[in-house]
Amino acid sequence: MITHDRDLSIDFCGVRFRNPFLLSAAPPSDDLDMVRSAFEAGWGGAVLKTTSVETEPVDLAYPMMSALHYEGGRIAGLGNIDLISEHHIDVVEQRVDMLKKEYPDRVVCVSIMGSKKQEWQELVKRLESVGVDIIECSFSCPQGSMGEEPGAMLAQSLDATERVAGWVKEAAQRCPVVIKITPQVTNIVKVAQAVKRGGADAICAANTIPSLMGVDVDSFVPYPNVQGYSTYSGLSGPATKPITLRTLAEISKNVDLPITATGGPVTWRDAVEMMLVGATTVQFCTAVMHYGYDIIDDLQDGLAFYLQEKGFGSPSEIIGKSLDRIVGHADLPREVKVVSSLIESRCVKCDLCYIACRDGGHQAIKLEGSDRLPQIDHERCQGCRLCVTVCPAEALEIVKAPE
Ligand SMILES: Cc1cc2nc3c(=O)[nH]c(=O)nc-3n(C[C@H](O)[C@H](O)[C@H](O)COP(=O)(O)O)c2cc1C
């Protein structure tokens, strides 16, 4: 249950969200009753999983999930070999109709994929006629786009991105058009510029990252093992957040289009970080698949308390607030010498800072005396921050070097 009474509403391309959090196009939005549960829980909107015209077959292979677990934690990253929804437009248009009647204050978006101009435009027209709020176009399924060469994603071609965005925009009479791109490109800014040239209203950045999730060293079969074979997965979840942040920042700094973020958020803090580098709304998938729809309570409370504590009136005030703090490497300040400093009361004497500095840093930490407390040699220490990153007890910090 949420405990705040703050207005968290936000405008995205002229569409009002009651909060900036929505389900992304994925299994949590691929069933009518599941979306109803999400709306009951408090989600501001949902992008229904990518749909297509009835004539396009969707041939799934199981099992489809595998994960990168790390040091006892589950799902640092989730891999999937899913395709678009098995529910074609005939089913999805009915769902949109029902959801809009039952939940008029929630934003219903639908993700679409076609192979030809006529398919893309038919999908748009049918969805608009049943009241969809936003059309999102999947140009970035890691298993490839329809009608393209096998495995290729539309958003990896600047020409295709501009052309197909133009087709969709031409057909859309009422709804904003969002293009969902892939981070798997050499220059994300050029892709975002192609989206803009195509006339689309916004960008969804970005889809899962093509990956090979691991290899079973006994059977030699990579994960997921589909009857002795595997294929490349789309990686999502917490491990992808830094890539998403970079993608958002690069687009926001260079292209004037609103962005809905996807890729890695789990907590309200993750979402705030994404907004600080340019996202207007934040989409969730893996976190919901792991912890359920009820995470929306923490997301709303966390954002509300953050805004209150920082003195912001509404979520829109934080969008892009960190962008001017991102500069090229050559422009980083270098005047002040910094060093590492120990907060003795927190040290658990695990030696990890000592080992890391000895073998991966500047050999500036010594364990001296019978208490084995780390001693930092400020002559050798460059303030690289490796020790801070390995310390499990937050017992080290970077400070200005003493005179
Ligand atoms: C099992 C699975 C299926 C997905 N299917 C789709 C899809 O049909 N269309 C789409 O645009 N994105 C799809 N995605 C990508 C998600 O919408 C989302 O962009 C991605 O998982 C990154 O966000 P996350 O880190 O919050 O999971 C899928 C993701 C998963 C895990």
Can you characterise this structure?
This protein has eleven helices and 18 strands. The chain has 403 residues and is an alpha/beta fold. The protein has two domains: 10-325, Aldolase class I (TIM Barrel); 333-400, Alpha-Beta Plaits. The protein has an eight-stranded parallel β-barrel with strand order 3-4-7-8-9-10-13-14, surrounded by eight helices. Strands 5-6-12-11 form a four-stranded antiparallel beta sheet, with no helix packed on it. Strand 8, helix 4 and strand 9 (177-181) form a beta-alpha-beta unit. Helix 3 runs parallel beside helix 4, helix 4 (158-171) runs parallel beside helix 5 and helix 7 packs across helix 9 (295-310). The longest helix has 16 residues, at 295-310. The relative contact order is 0.12. The protein binds flavin mononucleotide. Flavin mononucleotide binds next to strand 4, strand 6 and helix 8.
Features:
about 400 residues; alpha/beta; Alpha-Beta Plaits; 2 domains; eight-stranded parallel barrel; binds flavin mononucleotide
Structurally, how many domains make up the residues? 2
Largest sheet: 8 strands, parallel, barrel
Query: What overall form do the CA principal axes indicate?
Result: globular
- Please report the first level of CATH classification, the CATH class of the largest domain: Alpha Beta
Helix and strand run: EEEHEEEHEHEHEHEEEHEHEHHEHEEHE
Number of helix segments?
11
From the alpha carbons, calculate the radius of gyration and give it in angstroms: 23 Å
CATH superfamily of the largest domain: Aldolase class I
